[in-house]
Amino acid sequence: MKKYKFLHFLLAVGLVIGSSACDEDTLDEIDTNPNSPEDVSVSLLMPQVTMAVPTAVTGVDLGWYSSVFVQHTAGVHAQLQSADRRSGLEDATLVNNVWTSIYALVLPDLDAIIRKGSTGGQEEGNWTHVGIAKVLKAYTLAVATDTWGPVPASQAGQGIENRQPAFDAQEQVYAQVQTLLDEAIADLAKQAATNPGAQDFIYNGNAARWTKAAYSLKARYWMRLSNVNPNAAQNALAAAAQGFESAADNFTFNRYVASAIGEHPWFQELNDRSHHAVSESFVETLQELSDPRLPLMVAPAPVPGAIKGAPNATLTNDQRNREFSDVTTLVLNPTSPMPLMTYDELKLIEAEAHLKMGNTADAFTAYQTGIRAAMRRQVNATDATIDAYLASLALPQSGSALTLENIIRQKWIAFFYFQPFEAYNDWRRTGFPEFIDEHPISPPPVRFPYPQSEIDANDANVPNIRGNQIFTNPIWWVDGEREV
């Protein structure tokens, strides 16, 4: 009924306008939407980008599909159940929304902030805004290339000036990511004309904390190249030394609210769709490790009255979350934080880098520090609880016993529940956790399909990696094979 009333209102307005004698200037004014200005200041763009990146880039579809790929969760209904059984993943519309968010929403707004606030721009001297935008742009481009491989980067965000941008090889995109982070660090050190303050929903305009985030991301993206760059570990450690100093520096969005349009996207997914249950693999792994986080993160399933993970590729439809466990409210509630990168991840990156360089004692120290930080962040574990866990014989007790698998398994646990895309990147790069191949299903795809929207608009430039190739053609940083 409301729709028809609105339609009648529009028709009435049209009749009034059509019967009036208006000059061209008046018509121009009528055709202008005051709520959709063509030129927006950096102060108005900042809240939008610091909300959109954690929410629209990795907070929805990429996270939901990656979660079943790495067996944090199992799909128990509809699309995610099909994806868990490897059905429909070649569909070019699978992650159209993520591509659109990145290339039509996020990158244009970030580029506008950079252009306006830099030398010669309309708001020249807003260096803190510019530095923040470059950190977020680096993060967004890294997500894009980790998702698809070659993507538009150097020609992205040009709007009507270039509707068919070229696709840059992943090696080139990663070089741009590191350059952007270096530029961001330099910009954040400059005397800024203004500070975004509360307009920045992540660090409240704190340039020092954004700088630590930039260095920490540099460490992550250097370590991502461990298979293809012999200096990756050394470069990662150099960056990490200037990164997060504690969990207080975590790169986290923590501004969701308990309202229908402001809730955490995973909470909305649970209430609107409920496609996920906690994976049997996750439950069994924590049981094998006697990990005290299990009962605090995973709730008992109502029917058995105990924690019960869902087998990946299950045929059981459990949208009502009766037979299989879901996460606890400690993990997921309307205002849960959305981490983009954390201190515990950085320490585990350091552990891997030290291990790769043969510094086993330093690797072991960083490994235990990372676990300690993750347990505090995830479940607010006490020192006594953490000490008992670290002393367990289920975990390595010395640097000489520490393996890459130990480190990646703990990263995988730390990435639960909101960073499965990073766990997916680790699995593709290292092959861990190995349990992914133990179930009677084929391994996950090694990349996401290019979106149909871009194929339709820019087919000549979209790499010809289609169909089943998402299962067989890994992206560059896995094996060093260039794709374009």
Automatic annotation (TrEMBL):
Gene3D superfamilies: 1.25.40.390. Keywords: Lipoprotein, Signal. InterPro entries: SusD-like_2, TPR-like_helical_dom_sf. Residues 1-21 form the signal peptide. Pfam families: SusD-like_2. This is SusD/RagB family nutrient-binding outer membrane lipoprotein. It comes from Pontibacter aydingkolensis.
